[in-house]
Write a structure and sequence with these properties.
Strand content: 15-25%
Largest sheet: 7 strands, parallel
Distance between the termini: 47 Å
Radius of gyration: 27 Å
Strand order of the largest sheet: 3-4-2-5-6-1-7
Shape: globular
Structural class: alpha/beta
CATH class of the largest domain: Alpha Beta
Number of helices: 21
CATH architecture of the largest domain: 3-Layer(aba) Sandwich
Helix content: 40-55%
Length: 566
């Protein structure tokens, strides 16, 4: 068994990791830590979240910092406020027995004046989000000219969020002679570009297969009819009584709608999406971390930075447009040595996407059947019996009342008493699932031909209109941003989106011509990084394969592409 002593950690850090209950390093720590301690080398580490990446770079970073030098020597860049705060807390815990090391988290939404006051005291390690750090650099309030180690944490997430310009500006302020470390769950084209641009002959450390899913996660999909999506979700949740899950939706409207329905149906659930204030977001995330909530319904962007190690399930209420997003979603379960399950609710028309995801992540999906009402009730009853059997009796409180209880129930025999108790606790499920229909969808040969025929007819009848937007790549615009904006508009869920092209300063997209007013309305009062977006119609473009499914076989260039078919 490899220990932290074996990989070169000093006594102060050994004391810190021991105090946190860590006994042996994870695989990524075993590979990264000795490399950072023994060599001056750039590193690209590809590993899923929950594999111990923070300690992998944090422990050797602290060990190599000169505590007598008050200048900033270590810089860690994170995509979100939540991850920034988490990494900062972890580094502070690692450094608790190391004298003279000061760590500061710099992120938006907090007092910039307070952050500037802390910086004046001398900070050896800064953990920051790109936007706030760039702001402080422009104000001349932070000096990173002496940085010896620059770390990109979750680099793929930062690039997906449009931080390329900020990263360029920040790294321009750091010295050329430094070690750069890049940690990412996936090796996208943009991440590879960062490695080639800012790193010198980096050592690549890959845990598992490149761009693959987490090892401890099993993948299941349920074939459904679109109108039964919420009913199918309820059955899956009810058939797993002890589940502690994140349910991912594509749009904030779906997120709020699903959360509202779950709350109305008596579940401990809440939503997490971009329209929440930071205070509301913190409240929801804290309730979920403390397990006051069982189900968190979230969009991909809103869930970034949420760190929970013991999720039992990730449920894809709708599949993401980007396969890399599926990798991030599924990687939120099966962490810290635990096992987990990633579930996808798949409409008949999008079932082909499962094969694409399997190929990308190197894992096979199991096709599962939506449980029947009887199966759900049986599972719930067994769970209830286990809870009852495991309940400890407080005799000191119960015994004085027992004689009265026994007298009140004396007229009931054993069998009747059990049935009444079960009915009292269980009537909601029995009533809801009485005569429940089968929700499973089977694809017969006849159905297969009908769907192919309908798909061809849809494409033949499709008419697309081109729209011009006054924002582009430099504003941080991504294809999914535009699609989500349209989907979130009133009536937007029905709108088909075709080709999207994002240039440096502008963008164009194709949308169903029947919904021109809705598409234009979706971008009214819409801002990207503070810039007001204007949308206008170019010329209409008619069917014939020019819409959303053409050119699917061609490789995508950076910032261009088509929305994957669903």
């Amino acid at each position: 068994m490899t220990t932290f002593t074996d990989i070169g950690i000093n006594n102060e850090l050994l004391q810190a990791v021991s105090a946190q209950g860590f006994t042996e390093p994870t695989p990524v720590q075993t590979k990264v830590i000795p490399l950072m301690l023994e060599q001056e080398v750039d590193i690209v580490s590809l590993a899923q979240t929950g594999t111990g990446k923070t300690a992998a770079f944090g422990l050797p970073l602290i060990q190599r910092i000169d505590s007598q030098d008050k200048r900033t020597q270590g810089l860690v860049l994170c995509p979100t406020r939540e991850l920034c705060m988490q990494v900062s807390r972890d580094l502070e815990n690692f450094a608790r027995f190391t004298q003279g090391i000061r760590v500061l988290a710099i992120y938006g939404g907090a007092s910039i004046e307070q952050q500037m006051r802390q910086l004046r005291k001398g900070i050896q390690i800064i953990v920051a989000t790109p936007g706030r750090l760039r702001d402080l650099i422009q104000r001349g309030k932070v000096d990173i000219s002496a940085v010896r180690y620059a770390v990109f944490d979750e680099a793929d997430e930062m690039l997906q969020m449009g931080f390329q310009d900020e990263l360029n500006a920040i790294l321009a302020e750091t010295p050329k002679e430094k070690n750069t470390l890049l940690f990412s769950a996936t090796m996208s084209r943009e991440v590879a570009n960062i490695a080639s641009r800012y790193m010198s002959d980096p050592v690549e450390i890959t845990m598992g297969r490149k761009n693959s899913g987490a090892e401890n996660v099993t993948h299941e999909y349920y074939l459904i009819n679109g109108r039964d999506r919420y009913s199918a979700l309820k059955r899956i949740v009810d058939n797993n009584p002890e589940n502690y899950s994140i349910i991912f939706c594509r749009t904030r409207r779906d997120t709020q709608d699903v959360a509202d329905k779950l709350i109305q149906d008596g579940y401990r659930a809440d939503s997490l999406h971009g329209e929440l204030s930071q205070a509301q977001r913190d409240l929801v995330m804290n309730k979920f971390r403390k397990k006051h909530l069982q189900l968190l319904v979230a969009t991909d962007v809103a869930a970034r930075g949420l760190d929970v190690n013991d999720l039992t399930h990730v449920i894809n209420y709708s599949l993401p447009d980007d396969i890399a997003a599926y990798t991030h979603r599924s990687g939120r379960t099966g962490r810290a040595g635990s096992s987990g399950t990633s579930i996808a609710l798949v409409d008949l028309r999008e079932r082909h996407r499962i094969k694409h995801i399997e190929k990308k992540i190197g894992k096979k999906f199991t096709k599962s059947l939506i449980p029947t009402g009887k199966e759900v009730c049986t599972t719930q009853l067994r769970s209830l019996m286990e809870v009852i059997s495991g309940t400890e009796v407080n005799h000191e409180q119960i015994d004085p009342l027992y004689a009265d209880i026994e007298q009140q129930l004396a007229h009931l025999d054993r069998e009747e008493l059990i049935k009444k108790f079960i009915s009292l606790e269980f009537n909601r499920f029995l009533k809801y699932y009485k005569d429940a229909p089968d929700l499973n969808q089977q694809v017969s040969g006849k159905n297969q031909k009908n769907f192919q025929k309908n798909d061809r007819q849809d494409q033949k009848n499709k008419t697309f209109t081109r729209f011009h937007l006054n924002v582009g790549r430099r504003n941080g615009v991504l294809p999914e941003n535009l699609i989500n904006t349209i989907n979130a508009a009133p009536g937007g869920g029905r709108i088909k989106v075709g080709k999207i092209e994002i240039m440096r300063n502008t963008a164009t997209l194709e949308g169903d011509s029947r919904f021109i007013p809705q598409i234009l309305g979706a971008f009214q009062h819409f801002k990207v990084n503070g810039k007001v977006v204007t949308a206008k119609v170019l010329q209409p473009r008619t069917g014939g394969g020019r819409g959303r499914n053409s050119n699917m076989g061609k490789s995508r260039k950076p910032w261009k592409g088509r929305r994957p078919r669903h």
